[in-house]
Amino acid sequence: MEPINIVNSIITPLNRKNVDTDQIISKEFLKRIERTGFGQYLFHHWRFDEQGNEIPDFVLNKPEYRGSEILVAEDNFGCGSSREHAPWAILDYGFRVVIAPSFADIFHNNCFKNGILPIKLTEAECDEILTQGLQSPLKVEVNLENQTVTSEDGKVYNFNIDPYYKQMLLNGWDEISLTFQYEDHIKAYEDKRVAY
Amino acid sequence: MAKNIIEKIWDSHVVYQEAGKPDLLYIDLHLIHEVTSPQAFEGLRLAGRKVRRPDLCFATMDHNVPTKNLPTINDPIAKKQIMTLAENAKEFGIQLADMGHPDQGIVHVIGPELGLTQPGKTIVCGDSHTSTHGAFGALSFGIGTSEVEHVLSTQTLWQTKPPTMEIRVNGKLGIGVAAKDIILAIIAKWGIGVGTGHIVEYTGEAIRGLSMEERMTICNMSIEAGAKAGLISPDQTTVDFLRGRRFAPNDEKFEEAANYWLSLASDADCSYDVVLEINADEIEPIVTWGTNPSMGTGVSQTVPTSADYTSESDKAALQKALAYMGLQEGQPISSIDIQHVFIGSCTNSRLSDLRTAATIVEGKKVAPGVKGIVVPGSWSTKKAAEEEGLHQIFLNAGFEWRESGCSACLGMNEDIIPSGERCASTSNRNFEGRQGAGARTHLVSPAMAAAAAIHGHFVDVRNFVKQEAEPLGVKVNGTY
């Protein structure tokens, strides 16, 4: 997993709430057996019409937001299905950070396993960033070590993050290797485990 | 100290605990299906790792499997994914209910049927509807593919203990009101984010009176309320359901297990971080009109109008949903015509669901212009239904009777609702494109779906329920 600390980028303002994982990656693309190559299908039915042409109004298709590494959305981002293909698509498309007032639990968890930083800001803060980003491209700097998002006009937004997951992202740790260090504890648990 | 069931199960599964870290939890049962597992097995192979406890894993195919003309799979990519699971199960020594196997079915239907699902277990699966198994008083939740790989390798997961929530359903349900209506009413009342970050226990008189299959319907849709998991404390109903199941403890061990299971029920004086209450008698059959499961209302009501919302964001969401659904503000729910009916999915494809729907359609015909399919949740359910003659009732009414699978719940297989057409569906998600690009989904109970099939539009199923229906399983006395 790629470590992450500082990301400097314009934001992609996706002013929608309850963005579900069916929208992030539609079911017809879940049949692949690889982890890679999902970026081309991100938000497929919002990005492309039935002939496969880009829908110019959709934010990802606007030239001013191309190359953005920070996605900003509204409440309850990533709700619905557990499909990890959703964060895979987000990462493969080029996003490293998703900012929203709240995230659905499974999606939130899946981000940490893939080197994506999910940042919770307040609804008012997200609104402010979204509004500015929609008016004209807004550049921000995300700093995980300091737990800050700094907009180009110098405004600083602080965020909280679980210290365990922070270290995992900063170091790009493989969680399975970490867990193997607890083998004695797992074995001891299994020895006394009651099972029917 | 008094504990609720969530705390009891959590505390008894902690392998390792340290301040500043999530808890390392032991996982008792890992259910596996074809869509969310291939990358996890590939990860194991690349790292030269083994499956730690293949005996605690159970795999089946459900999302991609065709529900007719078996064993042909027309889609080569789906076929590859299905074959990949078969190869992985063989390579890593995991028990598999393969296509055509008598145990095959929707993973959340077969776990309980086989008795793999038991009170007090921690159960995970790379599928958000793993919450279903909470009906037995198991702590069960959906995980991503990286976590699937983690469980395969270590039989554990790092988890931060979430706050707990009690949702109490007081009183008795009305005649013709289903478990599906309870959970849709809960989500409509408090929204799809109400449970986010929480584990829910459902309590109260109305819940206590439900059968195990009805409890599964409630817990199944916990994720649609945003909850990590949803549980119901075990009781005699739970014990009776499990007795004699293949993977349940055998005779001499069963009583010991049953006593342990019953001891897991929440203590009388336990507490929760959040408590919500709803009265069963205020719940009527629900129909969703929008593009998330909270956008639902009683069948006697109308589609909301902008005036019903205060925030601009909610007004915009209403307009966006209505545009997608092709509905008007204020339109009566009963005026919505449907072209498809889907009775199936991990929410509502069990024997009692099929019995209820059969009661409604018996001796009637599907309305002209409506296509109905009935997809039993497992081969075993299908066999049991056929032994009762339910298939003949559906076929006589003009429904198609299919093989088991996830089918039109998620449109990954060949069962897809065409763009712009409308489906009364007993499934769990009405997101844009869920049943097919441009498809319009209305979530309802099996009885409501069956009634809509006969009429071609939504009708209040309470008008259908007659005393003579009782032998086929519809509860008509309202007491549950």
Description of the structure:
The complex is a heterodimer of chains A (196) and B (480). In chain A, strand 5 (139-143) and strand 6 (148-151) form a beta hairpin. Chain A is an alpha/beta fold. In chain A, 32% of the residues lie in helices and 17% in strands. Chain A has 8 helices and 7 strands; from the N terminus they run βααβαβαβαβββααα. The model of chain A has no long low-confidence stretch (mean pLDDT 96). The longest helix of chain A has 13 residues, at 123-135. With 480 residues, chain B is an alpha/beta fold. Chain B contains 15 helices and 19 strands. Chain B has helices spanning 5-12, 38-47, 76-92, 107-114, 145-154, 179-190, 205-208, 212-220, 236-242, 251-263, 312-325, 351-361, 379-387, 390-397, 446-455, and strands at residues 14-16, 23-26, 29-32, 57-60, 95-97, 122-125, 139-142, 156-159, 164-170, 199-203, 229-231, 274-279, 286-288, 296-298, 340-343, 371-374, 400-401, 422-425, 440-443. In chain B, strand 13 (286-288) and strand 14 (296-298) form a beta hairpin. In chain B, helix 2 (38-47) packs across helix 5 (145-154). Chain B starts with a helix and ends in a 25-residue tail after the last helix. The chains are: A alpha/beta (196), B alpha/beta (480). At the A-B interface, helix 4, helix 7 and helix 8 of A face helix 2, helix 3, helix 5 and helix 10 of B.
